[in-house]
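User: Could you check the structure of this?
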Amino acid sequence: MGGPSIARRRGFTLIELLVVIAIIGILVALLIPAVQQVRESSYRAKCQNNLKQLGLAVHNYHDTKKRMPPYFGIEPVGGCGQYPWCNRSSVYGGWFLHLLPYVEQSALYNMIDAEVKQANMNENVVVGSGGGGGGGGSWVTVTYNGHTYTYWTGGGGSYTTTQVNDIWIEGAHQATFAVLQCPSDRSAVDTGLVYNYWGGSSYMANWNAWGDGTSAMWTPAQRFAQLTDGLSNVVLFGEAYQTCDSLGRIALYSWFYHTFGLDWYGQGNTLMFQVQPGLGKCPTCCDNWRAQTAHSAMNVALGDGSVRSAAPSISQVTWTAAMLPRDGVPLASDW
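Assistant: Sure, the predicted structure tokens are below.
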């Protein structure tokens, strides 16, 4: 008698295997964009929440001090205004420095404030120098996006010893802040630093809303009542690349490094934002005189604390009206 028969197993043929592989490839190709879309949606929500937190911080500051933080300068101010020498015992820096206690960064703010008061100095001070020789220095000219800067370099072989104060102290200059990090910002590095020294920012303040329109970097702090177009009609914050055309957006020091609504010459502007620009130097790459977004639309925080997206199709007229807080021009339907 023969034993029970055993069915013969048949493996995949080459054609069947290729078909299975092709099906898997198609499914992966369909799945990747969906995964990317979900991830970008999460990143956009995170970015909008960051802007919301910044807007709320400004409102809490205003509730306490009856004015917005200074765009740049000291707080409290001195007899001659926002200049650092007007009150050497006041902390000195950009708008985010003054918002630190309102974004759960009181410990850092208190550390900076204590150092400034102890030293009675809010800027770095040269306390010694030496060397020399090798020439007396020279003028250097550089150009970024059509704007030219000329500065003096010291003579060869010379050196200075600097006493650091205020936001330049250890533990302050390199501090990074989650509320300033947009996860879609392609220019940001893992350390969160710009210039490998300063904590960076993916957001900038619209100088037109933070200033009086005339005083450039030293503009006095504004009250909400001075934004006469209404808080819901004014852009307070916008997005930015942390590094744009060699310019790093420093978290604690806004002047020169934050160029949203303000240029090097102290003139206000309402230049249209960029959507997903490149990172190098090219006609469509990041222009540091503008705001830029890594998303498909520009996320902004308005003066009333709300957050919305401005589409790339928005007209320059509408964008200008949203950037200017007291021009009396209503926002058009494309807003």
